[in-house]
Amino acid sequence: MNDERFTLITEGKVRLWVPNPKNYLREDGVYEPSWAPVFYNPLQVLNRDLTVLALAVLKNSMKHPIHVLDAFSGTGIRALRIAVEIGGADLIIANDLSKDSFILIRKNISLNRVGDVVKPSKMEANALMYLFKSSGKTFSFIDIDPFGTPEPFIDAAIWSVRNGGFLGVTATDTAPLSGNRWRAGSRRYDVRILRFDVPHYLGLRVLLGYIGRRAASRDRFIKPLISFTHKHYYRVIFKVSRGAGEADRMLNSKIGYILYCPDSGFRTLITEPISLISLTSTKCGPNLKLLGPLWIGELGDSEFIRQLLGSLGNKYTYLSSYKELLNLLNILIKESALTNTFDLVSVSRTLRVNTPKIKDVLDCLKAKGFAAVRSHLCRSCVSSDAGWEDIKECVAEMARPLKR
Ligand SMILES: C[S@@+](CC[C@H](N)C(=O)[O-])C[C@H]1O[C@@H](n2cnc3c(N)ncnc32)[C@H](O)[C@@H]1O
Q1: pTM exceeds 0.85, yes or no
Q2: Which residue of 70, 182, 254, 339 lies most exposed, with the fewest beta carbons within 10 A?
Q3: What is the CATH number of the domain that holds 372?
């Protein structure tokens, strides 16, 4: 291509034209993808690698015709990688609203010779999803990867995915979701949240809780397969199925609240705001907060993550984020089923003790009969099925003596 704004790269097994990063450097020398005429962020390669891996596993449970929508395609990279590295799809739409993207997507499709399966499209994502749905067509998998919040696209995605189909959603508005910009987060995701001491724990649960509630409003329910935070974004992949009864059960058991005392650090997950815990038993007083509604169930499915690991070690060892993915999946396979996460630095601060070693606290929790693992949500975090009182006991027991 005779255009100096672009350069040829390889990602996964795909060759493609992307904006030449040299032309879009900030003063500090860092590439700024949003300045380029077409969006491509090399920092998101793990997100795309994982999507390839997930579809390689999910493909086996999809009925033909397999229709995939890459709704915010940028350079076309996800659609191309799904076509080249997995195969088996009957139709993959690489859609982007931008004209420059559309032109580049067409070039990248022909460069990879996948024009029989991958079709370029230049439409607003919601319009495209509703148009397909209104003509009776639904998708087996939809990838939602917009700038910032995915909120405006959740309804259409849930509506236009097939019964038993899958959605992958990326969110880069982590500050609102995690409570660091809680006013924006509360408005955008229709929740009541505040700053929380494990921000990404809150953020992933607000995102999934919102999606679950939107699904329920249309008699659909979701099952999270994998959820994680990485660099500047959240990624969740989940199954969407039809059924009013199951949607009710999801609302009653997986959507709830965090009862939280910022003074003492006490927190617990509850399904009903008033039924479980009397205000006095929390020993918090008037500062007791109720955060939610949000997702209080598992953030992922260990069996699915096990299959991802199997596939990674088998056919996908060439992925450039292989090592990082291996580490992440090995944590998530255990962490996904544990619904409590504590930051040992924060717990120690409220107890006024030195922060103990993570390993000591994990050993202490396990000795008490709980499951406990290092969390990917923060460097000093552990995830466990233990509650607040048990973690407090272990932190106090294992705390290193204060220096005089
Ligand atoms: C974060 S980028 C997508 C990056 C791409 N998925 C990847 O992995 O490289 C978001 C893209 O969405 C496009 N976009 C923004 N709003 C849109 C909308 N409402 N409908 C369709 N595309 C949109 C932008 O032009 C941009 O290319």
Answers
A1: yes
A2: 339
A3: 3.30.56.70
